[in-house]
Design goal:
Layout: E1 9-12, H1 18-29, E2 33-38, H2 41-55, E3 59-63, H3 69-83, E4 88-91, H4 106-134, E5 137-142, H5 155-175, E6 180-187, H6 193-206, H7 210-219, H8 229-239, E7 251-254
Helix pairs in contact: 1-2, 1-8, 3-4, 4-5, 6-7
Amino acid sequence: MELGLKGKVAIVAAASKGLGRACAEEFAREGAEVAICARSAANLAKAADSIRKATGREVFAQELDVTRHEAVRDFVAAVEKRFGRVDICVTNAGGPPSKKFVDISIDEWRAAVDLTLMSAVYFAREVLPRMKKNRWGRLLAITSVSVKQPIDNLVLSNSIRAGVTGLMRTLANEFGGDGITVNCICPGYTLTERLDELVGLQAKNAGVEREKILERLSAQVPAGRVGRPEEFAALVTFLASERASYINGCSIPVDGGWTKSLL
């Protein structure tokens, strides 16, 4: 399917690994100009080099702490200077730690809000005026199926990603008349470093092998397995395309059927 992304400029946050990296590579395969950022310069450089080799396209990469508004502002400005415009932005950040409510400090709550919610606010503040000026744009937030069905021991993610969802749904209303769509994509269990970390923690707490935990997770999914990052990225690139111009204000799970809610 021709998505019409050739020449579009796409920003993908937290793209040094996992879902962000998969999205960035998929955008590059579709012919978009890609700009990526992440906190780890070493991991970011590896990701950019891998995407270049896989797609034959150049990648603009810059080390970035998404919890700092001024850093996000300068990064978006640098992308615009490099490519002349910003058409697509995928907000993303590493997941907050897995803990029970009584074990989470107030400082950890504040840090999780900065990482998960405020980073999305910062990117939205910088890219939406640019998209509005061009009368076209796609703002996409990577959230989690936890916004539809809370996940045990992920109270930080369950709570704060719901805030991101409320933000994005509101922005969809405010900017829908400007040729801009705003949507959330909700990954379920997907083979990423984040899942590997959670599996390791659960295996340690339960005193079992990691493979047992993966089997348990797979058994919860009607598809009978966990997902692959490229399956998630396929939806992200479609939502960024002109073909998805009437999809706005949605939170769409990519979870093999794990979410049991009707909506």
